[in-house]
Design goal:
By secondary structure, this protein is an alpha/beta fold. It contains 12 helices and 12 strands. It folds into 2 domains: 181 residues, D-Maltodextrin-Binding Protein, domain 2 (3-Layer(aba) Sandwich); 95 residues, Periplasmic binding protein-like II (D-Maltodextrin-Binding Protein, domain 2, 3-Layer(aba) Sandwich), CATH 3.40.190.10. The strands form 2 sheets. Strands 1, 5, 6, 7, 8, 9, 10, 11 and 12 form a 9-stranded mixed β-sheet that branches. Strands 2-3-4 form a 3-stranded antiparallel β-sheet.
Length: 282
């Protein structure tokens, strides 16, 4: 599509995509307001907020390059707009708390950074269709005696800083000692160094960790005392309906062409974490 086709198509495609996948379209953009999508096209590149310390999703490789599931996804959005996956500038956040303010202030166009949809967040920013399922899980050493969350009672566990994460852990293990670090990478390092008995992260990056460290770690599967079940979505500034329409269209197109499946396979070696809509015919 050229610029005019993009702006025309995504001014009205939101309701169609939402109806096809069973989602509710977000509130329409104010009449006469300039479209963020037009600003992006005029600028010539997409600005994406992400992080460099989210294992498997946005992190630095051995060469110092920013790579991961979310990075590949962001490049696909840029490719759809400019026919060039490199027409994207990444705004790297030091932590997850910067995601909502960056969208609200307009510092970034979209956020692609393991962005789980909570009710509090949905009141201030808009979210795309989900692109990955992921519940909150405990990762332990393969030879540890812990099989259930209750087995971690009184033990030191670790995760990144965030009141919502601490609340999830203490909801399942009320007397756990929760040590929190600025990001998941630091938390994982503390766990590997023996400063904690378990490392709490989402199950999607846990798949990547287990793949990268074969026979060293496993995930506690405790359906009777499960923690938060959630999904990752792309964040968009509230009211930017035209841009949100494009993101949803791009995700749908990626599903139809097998590119979303390919990203799941590349980073998670499985399509098990794909949301229902992405597995089902559209």
């Amino acid at each position: 599509m050229d610029r005019r086709e993009l702006l025309t198509a995504f001014g009205g495609v939101g309701a169609v995509v939402a109806a096809q996948v069973g989602a509710k379209p977000a509130a329409a953009q104010s009449a006469g307001a300039p479209s963020r999508l037009k600003e992006i096209l005029d600028r010539g590149h997409l600005i994406v907020g992400t992080r460099s310390t989210t294992i498997g999703f946005g992190f630095k490789d051995s060469k110092g390059d920013l790579v991961g599931f979310d990075i590949d996804l962001a490049k696909e959005f840029a490719k759809g707009l400019f026919k060039d996956p490199n027409k994207v500038k990444f705004e790297v956040f030091p932590g997850g708390a910067e995601r909502v303010p960056a969208l609200v202030s307009g510092r970034v166009d979209i956020v692609v950074s393991q962005f789980s949809v909570f009710e509090s967040r949905a009141q201030v920013v808009d979210f795309s269709l989900p692109y990955c399922n992921s519940d909150f899980s405990a990762i332990v050493k393969a030879n540890s005696p812990y099989r259930k969350h209750a087995d971690l009672a009184g033990k030191t566990v670790t995760t990144r800083q965030g009141d919502e994460l601490k609340e999830l852990i203490l909801g399942a293990i009320p007397n756990a000692k929760v040590d929190m670090y600025p990001n998941f990478a630091d938390s994982f390092l503390a766990f590997r160094q023996g400063r904690a008995e378990a490392f709490f992260n989402d199950s999607a990056p846990a798949r990547y960790i287990i793949r990268e460290f074969p026979n060293q770690f496993r995930v506690i599967l405790d359906a009777e005392n499960a923690m938060d079940v959630n999904q990752y979505s792309v964040g968009v500034k509230q009211g930017e309906q035209v841009l949100l329409n494009y993101v949803n269209w791009a995700l749908t197109r990626m599903k139809l062409e097998g590119r979303l499946q390919a990203i799941h396979q590349r980073w998670l070696e499985s399509e098990d974490a794909m949301p229902f809509w992405a597995k089902s015919p559209v």
